[in-house]
Amino acid sequence: MRLAILGAVLLVLGGVAIATGILPLADAGALAERVWPILLFAVAITVVAELAAEAGVFAAVAERTARAAGGRAWLLWLFVVLLAVLSTAFLSLDTTAVLLTPVVVLVARHNGLPPLPFALTTAWLANTASLLLPVSNLTNLLALHALGFSDPGRFVALLAVPAAIAIIVPCLALLLLFRRDLARRFEPSSAPAVDDRALFWISAGVLLLLLPLLVTGIPVWMPACGAAIVLIVVFAVRRRGALRFGLLPWQLVLFAGGLFLVLEAGHSLGLTVLLAQVAGSGESPAALLRLSVSGMLGANAIDNLPAYLALEPVAGSPLRLAALLIGVNAGPLITPWASLATLLWHSRLQTLGVELRWSRYVLLGAVVAPVTVVLATLGLVLAR
């Protein structure tokens, strides 16, 4: 609810900026034209993921990976890494934080393993693995527009090496941190029965059909909306009670909409000139590191989405936009508010009774985030 209140305040401020001429109406219209497909995709993919989770798809996959691990905790953890990367890449970082986290925590507990290594894995990879595909993060979809790429393959080619580094570095840190827990063995528990097999298989089928469509170059809101409509119809027939207003990420949409308006007004007032002095210019290794670190610091100070929106105008080239994405996607591992996904993740942990003090989270992130961002940026430099 706090996010909704903040979003409402931002929308009011944006409306004042339009009414007073600070933000010209034409600029506001151009902004709306740019962001409505992104927000529509965010709504549709959230509905798809929530309903698939309600059908038991994520839980079934996680339980079967636990059995496939053969009692080896480290192998189960590797399967969780793969699930987190795939979930983040295709269904966005918020899906991983909100829906995959409780699944892996419960799987760990059912098999007598400490849940924290698996929970922290989902939190870190929800952020760092969001460099993989345009649909992985709202920042990427915004950058796709700025890059002028109509083919997702060009985005992947640009960020493939940094994305790989941004996944590997946190995983190595997690292996070192939880090496004793991951060296344990366990007795796999039996998977729970699926309540409605027809609902399960239809939901799984919709997901399997949707994932490749998200990387074909079709505007991503189209297949996402189609998948959401199919699942809504199916659930209306077989489990109507699951269709509730809470499925819609309306608070996120309200917040993002207000944020877009306020930052666009800020740029009209000269924010770009100020930030250009902070983020610098050029495409030398030092210049790209300066921009990516600026993005990381901005994300941990005010959240990754406003940090990206604020710094996007000073990026100015595909290579610099890639460096900025590294900072705002792989860098939000330090403060609780660095990304909405982190806040949602911690809320789920509290609901599940998993203890992790913010002080410990901040300390670990303060070590891992800078190393990840710097190495990923150097990977970008070497791969160009």
From TrEMBL:
InterPro entries linked: Arsenical_pump_ArsB, Cit_transptr-like_dom
Keyword tRNA processing recorded: no
Q: Where is the Citrate transporter-like domain?
A: 4-339
Q: How does it sit in the membrane?
A: Multi-pass membrane protein
Query: What transmembrane ranges does the database entry give?
Result: 35-62, 74-93, 155-178, 198-215, 221-238, 250-275, 321-341, 361-383
User: Subcellular location, in the record's words?
Assistant: Cell membrane
List the keywords (alphabetical): Arsenical resistance, Cell membrane, Membrane, Transmembrane, Transmembrane helix, Transport
- Family membership: Belongs to the ArsB family. Belongs to the CitM (TC 2.A.11) transporter family.
Q: Which protein is depicted? A: SLC13 family permease
